[in-house]
Each structure stands twice: as C-alpha cells, then as structure tokens.
Amino acid sequence: MTLALVLEQLLNGVQFGLMLFLMSAGLTLVFGVMGLINLAHGSLYMIGAFLCAAVAGATGNFWLGLLAGIAAAAAAGALIEVVVIRRLYDRDHLDQVLATFALILILSEGVRMIFGPFPLYLNVPDLFRGTVRLGIVDYSLYRLALIGFGLAVALGLWLLIAKTRLGIRIRAGESDREMIAALGVNIRALYTVVFALGAALAGLAGALVGAIQSVQVGMGEPVLILAFVVIVIGGIGSIKGAMVGALLVGVIDTMGRFLLPRAFALFLDTSQAMGVGAALASMLIYLLMALILIFRPKGLFPAHG
Amino acid sequence: MKVFQHAVFAATLAAGAATMAQADTVSVGMITTLSGGGAGLGVDMRDGFQLALDMADAQNIRLVIEDDAQRPELAVQIAERMIQSERVDILTGIIWSNLAMAVVPSAVAQDILYLSPNAGPSALAGANCHPNYFNVAWQNDMLHEGAGAYANELRYQNTFIMAPNYPAGTDALNGFKRYYEGELAGELFTQVGQTDYAAELAQIRASGADSIFIFLPGGMGISFMRQYEQSGLDLPIVSAAFTFSQDILPAVGSAALGVFNASQWSPDLDNAANQEFVAAFRAEFGRIPSLYASQGFDTANLILSAAAKADVSDRAAFRDALLEADFDSVRGDFAWGPNQHPIQRVYIREVVEVDGEITNRIVGTAFEAHADVHGENCNM
C-alpha cells in the first residue's frame, strides 16, 4: 500500500463527495427554505443525465448536452413545483413523501417511454480525456475536472446565498416565511426559483456523472439515498452542512471500501476478508450517520440553531 | 337432421377432447426485471421469450408477465400471487441470482415448475437441486470457468478479479479461480448496483496486475468500462458474456472493443435456428439480441416442445417431456446434466465493430460439452 494509492483514494473520496454535494445542496435548500421533503430529486438528476446524453449524442458536443441537461432539469423542476409541489407546502411530510414518490414513478416511466429501457451512450468530452500527473499520482483528468466543477459550484452557491438579494430572500424565507411575505416579497415566485435552482444542481450532477456512469432509468435513486444521509449528517437546511457532510460521506465511503477488506485480510483468508470487508464498507456511512445523530441529533450544522 | 347435427356436435367434442389432452393451456408466470438499472436484461429476455411464442403461433400458452424491479421481496410477493391467484403451472424469468434464491425453493416445493432463463446460483445446483427446477441457461460458474481457462491460454500470470457481492458474484470469482492457473494480483467484491469504481481502479493500478477479470452485469459494466477508459490503465480484460453483452455494448462504445468474453451463445453462431432467431429478433425489435434474449427464446421453445408431448397438470409426465429437450436450441446442441442444468459448449467471443455496430464474434472455444461441478452433489 503506497502513499500514491492512499492519495489517489483521497482524491476519489473528495471527487465523490463534491458530486454528492451538488445533489444534497439542492435537496437541503428546498427542505430548508420550503420545508419540503422532495424524493423526486433523484429523478431530476436522471433527467439531467438523459437530456445531456441525448443532446450530446445528436450534436456530438458534450457542452451543449450539459447545458441542455441543466436547462431541462431546471424546467422540469419549475414545472413540478407549479403543478404539484405548490399544493403540498401546508400538508405534513407524509403527504409530501407520498406525492413526490409518485413523481419518481411517473418520471421514471416517462423517461423509459421516451428513451427506451436500455442505457444511453454518453462519453467524456475530448478536453478532459485521459490522465494527468499530480505529483506522484496519475489521476483521471475528468475526475479532476469534476472536483473543479464541484468547488466552483460551491463557491457560486455561497456567493449567491451570502451576497445577492435573492440570497437574502432565501435566507429570510428559511427563518420566517410569514414575515417576508408580509414584507411584500413574492414568496410563491421565490419558492419556484429555489426549487428550479435545486433541480438545476441535480441536473448538473447527473449530466457530469453520466459521462462516467451508466445513463439509465432509476440512476437517481441510489444517489438520492446518499444525499439524504449527507443532509442528515450536515444538518437539514444548511448548505455548509451539506458541504461538510458530502465530503465526509465521500471520503469515508471511498476509504472504507479501500481499507476495510485489507484490514480483515490481516486475520481472515482473502476471499472471506473481501466479503466481510465489502459488506461492512457498504454499511459504514450509515453507522457514521447513526453515530453523529447520537451526539448531534440535529446534525453537524443545524440550520435553525 | 337434428339427430345428425347432434352426432356431428358429439363427434367434434370427442375429437376436441382428444386434441385437448395434447394442447391443454399451460399457464406461465414470468417474473423479471423490467424497471431500474437491470431493466435491459429483463426486457431482452422477455422479448426473446415472446418472440418464440409468436414465431410458433402458440395458442396453448397463457403468459403472465410482472416486473420485479430487481427487488427480492417484490419477486417473492409476485410469485405467491401468481401461484395462488393466477394458478400458474410454470414460473420463469428471474434474471438475478439473489431473487432466484428467494423465489425458487418455495415455488418448486409447491409443485410449480421453475425454468430459469438466466440465474443459476450454485446453491440450487448442488445438494439443493430439485426435480421441478430446470436451468435453461447455465449454472452461474460456467461461463466464468471459460474465462479462467482462456486467461491461461492468453498466458495471463497476474490477474486482478472483481465481482459484485451477491450469490452470482461469488459464483463468478469461484468459477474463474477454478480454472485460472496464474497468480491473483487482487480480489475485490463491489456493491450490487455500484456506479463509481474509482476506489477499485486505483487498487488495480497499484496491484501491478497484468490483466483484469470482471463480472459486472448491466449498468455496472457500463460504469466500470466508462471509468476504466478514463483511468489511464491499459490492461487486457477477460470476462464472461454478461459484462459485454449486447444490451450494454452500445452504451459502452469503443472502450469494449477487443475484450474476450466467454459465452454459450453469440449472435454470429452458425446454426439454422440461431440465424432465424437473430433475423426475426432484428426485424421485430430493431436491435441485435443479447444472450438474455437467446435464453428467453430457448426457454419458451423448451416449454412449447414439452407442451406438445404432455399435459402440464401431470407434472411427472411434463418433467419427462422437458428432459427430452426436443427443441432446436439457438446455441446448438443442448443436453441436460444430472442437476437439470445444461451441459454445453462454451465459446470465447471478442467484442468487434461490424457495420458500425458494436457486437460480439466467436473467436474460439473454451470447453466442449462442459458440465458444472455442482451436479455431482445433486441426488434426484
């Protein structure tokens, strides 16, 4: 086990974490501002990936595909907010879960009807093919670009929330929605914008990750589960919490998959150690979540003190 | 005149009854994966099955299809419903071994015939074999054994092996290791449905392997190959047909070209039944069939061949008819082993591009008349 391998795995963990951040930022924003549990967030991720693959396939240009993926996810988000979600704000979380779960089924079937049951082809853009030498590590250029994208989006999101009028309204909406409505802010429009923003982030993540994964129906649900773990760890409603939670989950999951089988191999035979190690590694982030909830029941950075 | 009519009617009835005994309706329940990441496999299997019924213009098969969404608990519920309410005689269709493990033992114990068009977990092939359980595809280990044997032929010395952590993944690694004679650079279990292989690729790079063996069916294979292409690794890959099957090759693209994979079937296999099947499948669905489609097609034809000889309500007679295997398998010769799993030739295929389409071509043979090792533990 060399230093280069450990460093590469750390980079992998950070990259995985940043992609999780794109997913969980939207999820936590929507929950924090609107008090809504949106299970269909994973479907928006899928829409981003499918549109990106379809447009990139038709035009041969990944970047056009990426724009199309983001736009389609944002548009789908806005449409869903206006048609369905708007009726759910005053209902309890169980109704929201039920309705957004129905949306998962509808969107999955819809995508299957349009694109068929077989996975789509989406390749990495030419600009980011191959590997790059980082000190002692040969690292995939595309994964490095994903780290860059993740950091840029995190910075942009922070600027948006901390420095712009829209950000002030979002924060105000988080702390007291009646009051900002009373102050004359159009809260309905604000909700639509926040939901579309969250959807666009999910679509961006789907399109970016789609280039190195399988673009298939149902691709969003496994990521959605992880994104929920992230926001529970980070503190529901907190963007900062989502960032820390996503990096924690990304690094711990990657390092667990890497180190646990090796640890068991010290006292078990290889096949057994691989089986036990892999099984335990898949539980690791849930153990982490349970542990954090014992000591910090509202997560690491609770949005409402 | 009236008497005459009655006589004709009675005669028709009698004749009808005689043919009825032969052509009694067989109720077939198909539980397969039609949604989620594994949908491509189930859809191909179903389409192959349906195509066989259509080509035979079969009137005596009643087919009920349900989606298991790749979830074992759902598959169990569907099986119970099909047995209790739909009164099916035969169950079939399951793609994934963990689902087969959940459904098959209870179904065959209720005197339902189970014909597997795909999953062949080792646990059902040995001591737990059952007269009502037939596997029309292969025992899980079989194609991976072919990959192991071919790795020797390619003189691989230090192979890194990897599969998902579920019954078929364990069978895959065991099958490969049973024949592979070189050293193992490393051995890894991944999660079922895993989409990111960065951690595994880094370990392969650090292991100093000279080659890779993977078993990653469906979307898992697409994700791995996508990321492998971008990892800068350039090791030869040997595999079984699942990871380089026609259902995922278009999405993997040129990254798969040149990979050797073991299979009991290939679209270019040269026999009349197969040529007819591939042409009919392309005409009907506009794509090249995968091995899953070929297995669905064979399963349907096996059922049709038995239904022509025996009444399904007489299970013993129907089982005997199934054991005769009197149908033209698209893989060529078909014979049963002692555990009612096929004994068959295992080919080596290479992924190639033909007329702009990425597909497989047979380049060699790993085994002639190969039987699985679990059959000797089966006492039926």
UniProtKB/TrEMBL annotation, chain A:
InterPro entries: ABC_transp_permease, BCAA_transport_permease
Topological relation to the membrane, as annotated: Multi-pass membrane protein
Transmembrane stretches, start-end: 16-37, 44-60, 66-85, 97-121, 141-161, 189-212, 224-252, 273-295
Keyword Transmembrane found: yes
Subcellular location: Cell membrane
Domain of life: Bacteria
Entry keyword set: Amino-acid transport, Cell membrane, Membrane, Transmembrane, Transmembrane helix, Transport
A Pfam family reported for this protein in Swiss-Prot or TrEMBL: BPD_transp_2
Similarity comment: family membership: Belongs to the binding-protein-dependent transport system permease family. LivHM subfamily.
Official protein name in the record: Branched-chain amino acid ABC transporter permease
Organism from which the protein derives: Roseinatronobacter alkalisoli
Automatic annotation (TrEMBL), chain B:
Domain Leucine-binding protein, residue spans: 25-352
Family: Belongs to the leucine-binding protein family.
InterPro entries per record: BCAA_transport (IPR051010), Leu-bd (IPR028081), Peripla_BP_I (IPR028082)
Keyword Nucleotidyltransferase: no
Signal peptide segment: 1-23
Keyword GTP-binding: no
Keyword line: Amino-acid transport, Signal, Transport
A Pfam family recorded for this sequence: Peripla_BP_6
Protein name: ABC transporter substrate-binding protein
Organism: Roseinatronobacter alkalisoli
PANTHER family membership: LEUCINE-SPECIFIC-BINDING PROTEIN, PERIPLASMIC BINDING PROTEIN OF ABC TRANSPORTER FOR NATURAL AMINO ACIDS
CDD domains in the record: PBP1_Nba-like (cd06359)
